[in-house]
Amino acid sequence: MSERDEEGSPAAGSGEAGSDADLTHTDESGDARMVDVGEKPDTARRAVARGTIRLRESTARAVRDDEVGKGNVLATARVGAVQAVKHTWETIPLCHQIPVTNVDTEFAVGDDRITLTVAVETTGKTGCEMEALEGVTTGLNVVWDMVKAAEKDDDGGYPGTRIEGVEVVSKEKRALE
């Protein structure tokens, strides 16, 4: 897996291109640092991420029919996803705090899975893909937390429950008008 900077270019030190002088998250002595984006122009940005949680068919049906004892799973997961987006800078080291202007969440409940898509928008100097990813992973973790009693086997494990396929599906940047 290659490392890329926020603009999609090979990151220095990734073995693809560049030199140590091009590393963006380290200073001259190799210490971690936040990237200075102060000179970059503000642009409108949007990132969309998606992921899936695999569940028992009976659990997915209970979520779809709003019959989970802890409450409305999708409504709670939506709130968790939005909160995670807004607090990404607190959980990802060296991540900038950005002005989130919009968060859209979409759940697709299948026979044995729930797919969550999170779209994040901002206007600023840096992207919002980490926020979209945080929204997806936290939203799916909330689903797991709310259905874990139904997913446990006799030994207290979760042999068929898993979160998978978490990815950034699109990223856009456009100049402000």
UniProtKB/TrEMBL annotation:
Explain the purpose of this protein: Catalyzes the conversion of (8S)-3',8-cyclo-7,8-dihydroguanosine 5'-triphosphate to cyclic pyranopterin monophosphate (cPMP).
Q: Which GO terms describe its molecular function?
A: cyclic pyranopterin monophosphate synthase activity
The record places domain Molybdopterin cofactor biosynthesis C (MoaC) at 34-173
How is the subunit organization of this protein annotated in UniProt?
Homohexamer; trimer of dimers.
User: Which species?
Assistant: Candidatus Halobonum tyrrellensis G22
- Segment Disordered: which positions? 1-43
Q: What is this protein called?
A: Probable cyclic pyranopterin monophosphate synthase
Residues noted as binding substrate in the record, renumbered to the chain: 94-96, 130-131
Annotated TM spans: none
Pfam families, from UniProt? MoaC
Q: Which residues form the active site?
A: 145
List all Basic and acidic residues biased stretches. Answer: 22-43
- Lyase is among the record's keywords: yes
The Swiss-Prot or TrEMBL record describes its family as follows: Belongs to the MoaC family.
Q: Where is the composition biased (Low complexity)?
A: 9-21
Q: Name one GO biological process term.
A: Mo-molybdopterin cofactor biosynthetic process
Query: What SUPFAM superfamilies does the annotation carry?
Result: Molybdenum cofactor biosynthesis protein C, MoaC (SSF55040)
